[in-house]
């Protein structure tokens, strides 16, 4: 896939996200629709969804794909590391990631974008692929836009 094709796909996905969550403050409903848009719109993805930060751990939220780990502690696996460091994680080969949690043995690469508001982690957007080295800075850029839209549009439990 060319750079232009990848950008075009993401521009379409971002516009779909904008339209579907517009004027809808419910975070769970919006996460469910965003998961579906990303899962169905991105190539070579076998899991797309959210974990929500609750009581000092990540708890499984809306997703598309096979069943997943329900609870992830801070600092554990790719998602927990994104929470600990408060930064995106792009992992070319999850089998080489220290402390990787293998929820689906078919997953070989992963990207996790933390959802942060006023320095507080509210959750993460997590996407897995059966392909190695599937994700890059372009994915990160556009997925951060998706997370920013979610933060802007939704009413979070702590508000």
UniProtKB/TrEMBL annotation:
Organism: Natranaerovirga pectinivora
Name of the molecule in the record: GAF domain-containing protein
Cellular compartments per GO CC: cytosol
Domain called GAF: residue spans: 37-148
A GO molecular-function annotation: L-methionine-(R)-S-oxide reductase activity
Domain of life the protein comes from: Bacteria
Family: Belongs to the free Met sulfoxide reductase family.
InterPro entries (UniProt xref): GAF, GAF-like_dom_sf, Phosphatase_reg/MetRdx
Pfam family of the protein (one): GAF_2
Organism lineage: Bacteria, Bacillati, Bacillota, Clostridia, Lachnospirales
